[in-house]
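INSTRUCTION: Work out how this chain folds

Fields: amino acid sequence; protein C-alpha cells

Chain under study, with its fold:
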Amino acid sequence: MKPIIEIKSLNKTYKDGFSALSNISLDIFPSEVLALLGPNGAGKTTLISMICSLTTISAGSIIVGGFDITKNPLEARRLIGLVPQELTINMFELVWDSLNFSRGIFGLPSNDKYLNHLLDTLSLADKKTQPLMNLSGGMKRRVMIAKALAHEPKILFLDEPTAGVDVELRRDMWQQIKTLKESGVTIILTTHYIEEAEEMASRIGVINKGKIVVVEDKNTLIKKLGKKQMIFDLTQDLKKLPDSLGNFNLKIEGSKLIYNYNSKSEDTAISTLIDGLKKEKIEYKDIQSKKSSLEEIFVELVHQS
C-alpha cells in the first residue's frame, strides 16, 4: 500500500542552533490511526506543524497525497485537517457559520448535507445554531474536530484531542474517532494518555529529543518489547531468597514472589523455577501472570533514548 504521507530525512533547526527534529523518516498509510507518543518538548507538535506547512523545513522532504509540501503547499494542505491543542475559535460565531467558513477557506462551496452529517457524527446536531461561547469545553473541542473535517480532508491531525476533557466524554470521543477511521480518514494523534493510544491506534510511534525512537504495530510492539511477570502468592512471608534460586530474576514483596521474564525468550524457565520452589519447600496458594502495559514500554523506550 502506498503511504499517504511520506517523510524522508526531515530536520528542523532554528536560528539559535536548537535542533527540534533530527533525521525523521516515517511513512503513514491510508485509513490508519497512528499515535505519536513522547514527553513534553519531544518534537511532536513541531512535526505536525511541518507536515501542515505551518513551520518551514530545514532539510528533508514531506510528501502528502503525492504533493511535495514545499512545491505544492496548497494542494497538500487541502488534504489535511488539523485540530491543535489550543482552542482557536471565534466565540461569538455560530457553530454552523464556523463550519461553513472553514469550507470556504479551502475554496469549497457550501454542502449542507455533508455538514449536517458531520454534526450528527460528532453529536453536535442540536448545537448548530448555538454561538460557540455557549458550549462546554468538550463541545468546543468537538467543534474543532468538525471544523478540521469541514473541507473533507483525507488526513486528520489531532494534537492532544482530549486534553482537559472528562473521562466519560473522552471515551465518547474515542468512539467518534474510530467512526472517522472507518469512514476512510487517516488519523494521526498526539496524546499524553497512554490508554488513549492503546485503545485507538493501530500503530505507535515514540519520539524523544527530536528523534523517532520506534514506530511499530501496537500489538507487535507490546509483544516484542513487553516483559511478563509471574506472581506467586505465597502461604507466608518470605524473608530471604534461597541461594538455589539466585539465578532467577525474582523479587520478594512480603508474601508475594515476583518472577520477571522476557516474553520473547523461548525458554522462560518457569517449570525449572516451580521445581526449585518445591525443593525449597516454598508453598504458594495462587499464581498470576501479568504483561507489560504500553505505558511501561513507553517509559522504558524514552529512558533508553
Summary: The chain has ten helices and 14 strands. Residues 5-222 form a domain with the Rossmann fold fold (CATH 3.40.50.300).
